[in-house]
Amino acid sequence: MGKIGKLEEIKAWQEARELVKEIYSATSKGKFAKDFGLRDQIRRASVSVMSNVAEGYARSSDKEFARFLGIALGSTAEVQSQLYVARDLKYITNNDFDSLYNRCSKTAKLITGFINYLKNAPR
Fold first, then answer.
1. Which of 72, 81, 107, 111 could form a disulfide with 52 if both were Cys (CB 3.0 to 4.6 A apart)?
2. CB atoms < 10 A from the CB of 60, how many?
3. Per-residue pLDDT tens over the stretch 39-52
4. Range of the domain at 81
5. Rounded Cα distance, 95 and 36, in Å
6. How far apart are CA 110 and CA 79, in angstroms?
7. What is the pTM of this model?
8. Which secondary structure element, helix H or strand E, spans residue 22, and what is its range?
């Protein structure tokens, strides 16, 4: 893998950005929009994924970058867990749940791959 020129080139960040847009869309309507606690928590968790990829990118070492990617990975799991709450409360449909859950999984897979790359990159 070549040198990353800018944040926007990172696939995991791009995918996290799409996750944020989809979460905001899903939480802007119906009962979900009125459940301020869950709505705000799932939004913050999704933004955390994107933000931690960005913060890690800005750090000075691969070790620090991998650490922030690990935090981002944890936030994807947090979003997935909150999606279960939203589905159980019928704030989202099963189709919406599947779509959002899969977006989280795709994001997590990219982050995990990047962590593995950074940990195994030749020095």
1. 72
2. 7
3. 999 999 999 999 99
4. 11-120
5. 23
6. 16
7. 0.93
8. helix 11-26
